[in-house]
Amino acid sequence: MSIEHVDPDVLAALRDAVGADDGGESALGWPGVHAFEQRHGVVLPEPYRSFVAEVSDGSHAGPPEYGLVALGDLPSDYGSDGSERDLTRPFPLTGPWLWEGDDDEPDKDRLRSVFDDGSIVLGTDGCGMNWHLVVTGPHRGRVWMISGEGAMPFESGFAAWVARWAAGEPWFDAG
């Protein structure tokens, strides 16, 4: 998985998977991607970066269940307005964390960091189960499922996550 350079075949597979055959009209464009990156102090990982610039900035078709949200947007069930989000602070996890049902109350600062630091939200499967793409920290380029109960990494990055969805394979056994 390369998060610095995009393979044209990977980008074509992403385009086919989400049905983005509008010639890039739904894409954000490179000036829009560069403006987002400058505003937030990050460089998005490939192939997501090229996907939103050249293919589509969001998709109602999916993935996930309720579609991809546009770059920087949050699903309607996110639970906050996103004002605490900081993409320059590293995403705090490198392994799964199930905080619901834990006997100890989770550290509030760490919990806030899981939701707000170092990741963009890709979309939702509903009920607060949101998919994030890590943009800062050791898991940069990896996709994570974060819900009200816990967080777990997906097997790889954006392209593998989309391919699994397009093939109709479940996500829950991919960690």
Can you tell me about this structure?
- The chain has a single domain, classed as SMI1/KNR4-like.
- The longest helix is centred in the N-terminal third of the chain and has 11 residues, at 8-18.
- The mean pLDDT is 88.
- Helices cover 27% and strands 15% of the residues.
- The chain contains 5 helices and 5 strands.
- The chain is of the alpha+beta class.
- Helix 1 (8-18) packs across helix 5 (158-166) and helix 2 (30-40) crosses helix 3.
- The protein has helices spanning 8-18, 30-40, 48-55, 108-116, 158-166, and strands at residues 97-98, 119-124, 130-134, 142-146, 150-157.
- Residues 34-152 form the Knr4/Smi1-like domain.
- This is SMI1/KNR4 family protein.
Structural class: alpha+beta
- Contiguous low-pLDDT stretches (5 residues minimum) are none
Kindly provide the radius of gyration, computed on alpha-carbon positions and rounded to a whole number of angstroms: 15 Å
Tell me about the biggest sheet? 5 strands, antiparallel
Q: How confident overall, as mean pLDDT?
A: 88
Order of helices and strands: HHHEHEEEEH
What is the percentage of strand-forming residues? 5-15%
- The coarse overall form would be globular
Distance between the termini: 16 Å
- Count of separate DSSP helical elements: 5
Helix content: 25-40%
How would you concisely characterize the structure shown here?
Helices cover 27% and strands 15% of the residues. It is α+β, with helices and mostly antiparallel strands and 175 residues long.
Please give the structural blueprint.
Layout: H1 8-18, H2 30-40, H3 48-55, E1 97-98, H4 108-116, E2 119-124, E3 130-134, E4 142-146, E5 150-157, H5 158-166
Antiparallel strand pairs: 1-5, 2-3, 3-4, 4-5
Helix pairs in contact: 1-5, 2-3
Protein name: SMI1/KNR4 family protein
Domain Knr4/Smi1-like: 34-152
Pfam family, one: SMI1_KNR4
